[in-house]
Specification:
This protein is of the alpha/beta class. The chain contains 13 helices and 22 strands. Bound molecules: flavin-adenine dinucleotide and nicotinamide-adenine-dinucleotide (NAD).
Length: about 450
């Protein structure tokens, strides 16, 4: 049985970065990836980058099938680049196959031709990502019109009528994207509140803007049954005690993603998983077995590419650094939902600050007051920044507005560096930019 210093299961963000780093240091590294179409992992092939490319091209008015072709060219370029980034290292190897633990330190790989090989690793890293949750709805398995986000980005034709089950990250980003390409879109969410974690005023603005774009929302919708009729699908759902239905060409299921641990053979090991199937880790990403770590979505918690990348940093710091990094020191994590304009957040919003009993000063301003928003021609949205009354440090910010996905990183930096909010207020910014709004917002 071949032994490697490092075995990485799954070509995910953290894993590939680790593979590149460790092999460039001369260590032997084996990366096992079950699909040739997934070299480089989820983000570049079927998630962040293709979806944002499609979202942008929808904004630019590109026709749907042309946009899908452009997206395919992009992913194929990135896949090839990512493969070579690892495989071209002298001490690294990429093996195509499905990996499964058969003991704490032995992994069996089923190759494409059905042949099985076993390897062992001095260190093993699980980086298998997450897969869509398919809710238990009558008829969902039988319907020919069900899509996950991957299939939705590979459609040959634009669906005239599209339903989306789930109004979270994927549901919102895809609803707007398909609407812009020309589909009639209905979003069904089981929750009665739209974006329940966001402040009510922000959620209300987004809700009204998306509805103005022509998207239909059915909140508090309990989907009961899906039936295919003449090539279309009828979705029956309960809402406020009434039975309703919607007939569509395709149904995108976007009701969450769960850690990819099924069929990984973890039952053959002492690696613990929680009741949601996530690999249980300690504060340094170690599993319950010595020398086995988990990276990225597979360990549960926040599902973002940049979290997987930061997992890589924690592991490198442990193996070759001063061993100071911990998962629990990752307290300031921003996010952006790439609707248009984007919604971005870092730290506490008002709802959370109130729930925690924090006293805060609130600075807020409508995007309409920002010159750059006029230049862009989209004045929708709001800036909200919460400041600690005693320390003057920023507790959190929500920006719904053009380029918020860039501006939020500036605020994140200020929070991380524990800068007083006055530093951002009095900063010299280039003009015209959305960032310069902080001069006025924080007054
Ligand atoms: C549509 C969509 C849009 C998203 N947009 C964003 C965004 O804008 N920004 C953001 O930060 N995040 C976004 N995310 C989330 C982001 O994609 C994930 O958090 C991130 O890709 C997780 O990376 P990872 O390192 O956990 O592993 P992944 O990149 O998921 O890699 C796991 C790899 O393991 C392989 N694998 C699985 N099981 C096995 C096995 N048994 N043997 C061998 N190989 C195996 C898989 O084929 C896969 O290539 C999005 C997700 C989706 C679905
Ligand atoms: N911009 C980004 O960073 C980005 C973009 C896309 C995805 N992602 C990541 O991918 C993950 C998965 O995205 P997602 O949108 O699938 O999950 P999500 O958790 O964001 O949203 C799931 C939604 O589905 C609803 N839901 C659940 N079960 C339902 C049911 N039976 N019927 C109707 N509605 C139901 C929930 O109420 C929720 O609103 C996210 O958690 C996020 O971390 C990130």
């Amino acid at each position: 049985m071949e032994k490697f210093k490092n075995v990485i299961i799954g070509f995910g963000k953290g894993g590939k970065t680790l593979a590149k780093k460790l092999s460039s240091m001369g260590e032997s590294v084996l990366v096992i990836e079950k699909s040739k179409k997934m070299y480089g992992g989820t983000c570049i092939n079927i998630a962040c980058l293709p979806s944002k490319n499609l979202i942008l091209n929808a904004e630019r008015g590109v026709e749907f099938t042309e946009a899908i072709n452009t997206k395919n060219e992009l992913t194929s370029f990135l896949r090839n680049k990512n493969y070579h980034m690892v495989a071209d290292e002298a001490t690294a190897q990429v093996l195509d196959g499905n990996a499964k633990f058969i003991s704490n330190d032995v992994i069996e790989i089923t190759l494409e031709n059905g042949e099985k090989v076993q390897v062992t690793g001095e260190r093993i890293f699980i980086n298998t990502g997450a897969t869509p949750v398919i809710p238990n709805i009558e008829g969902i398995k039988e319907s020919q019109n069900i899509l996950d986000s991957t299939a939705a980005m590979d459609l040959a034709n634009l669906p005239k009528d599209l339903a989306i089950i789930g109004g979270g990250y994927i549901g919102l980003e895809f609803s707007e994207m398909f609407r812009k390409y020309g589909s009639n879109v209905t979003v069904l969410d089981i929750n009665t509140t739209f974006l329940p974690r966001e402040d009510d005023d922000v959620a209300q603005m987004i809700f009204s803007d998306l509805k103005d774009e022509g998207i239909t929302f059915e909140l508090g919708a309990q989907v009961q049954k899906i039936t295919d009729v003449d090539g279309k699908s009828v979705i029956i759902f309960e809402q406020d005690g009434r039975t309703k239905e919607v007939k569509v060409d395709k149904i995108l299921v976007a009701s969450g993603r769960k850690p990819a641990t099924t069929n990984l053979g973890l039952e053959n090991t002492d690696i613990k998983v929680d009741d949601r199937g996530a690999v249980v880790i300690d504060d340094q990403l170690k599993t319950s077995v010595d020398n086995v770590w988990a990276i990225g979505d597979v360990k549960g918690g926040l599902q973002f590419t940049y979290i997987s990348l930061d997992d890589f940093r924690i592991i490198m710091n442990q193996l070759y650094g001063d061993n100071s990094r911990r998962v629990s020191d990752r307290t300031i994590v921003p996010y952006s939902v790439f609707i248009n304009p984007p919604l971005s957040n870092v730290g506490l919003n008002e709802k959370q600050a109130k729930a925690q009993g924090k006293s805060y000063k609130l600075y807020k301003q409508l995007v309409a007051a920002v010159p750059k928003a006029r230049v862009i021609g989209d004045t929708r949205g709001i800036y909200k920044v919460l400041v600690d009354e005693t320390t003057n440090e920023i507790l959190g910010a929500t920006i719904y507005g053009e380029e918020s996905h860039e501006v939020i990183n500036l605020i994140t930096l200020a929070m991380k560096a524990k800068l007083p909010y006055t530093m951002l207020r009095d900063q010299i910014y280039t003009h015209p930019t959305m960032a310069e709004a902080l001069n006025d917002v924080l007054k």
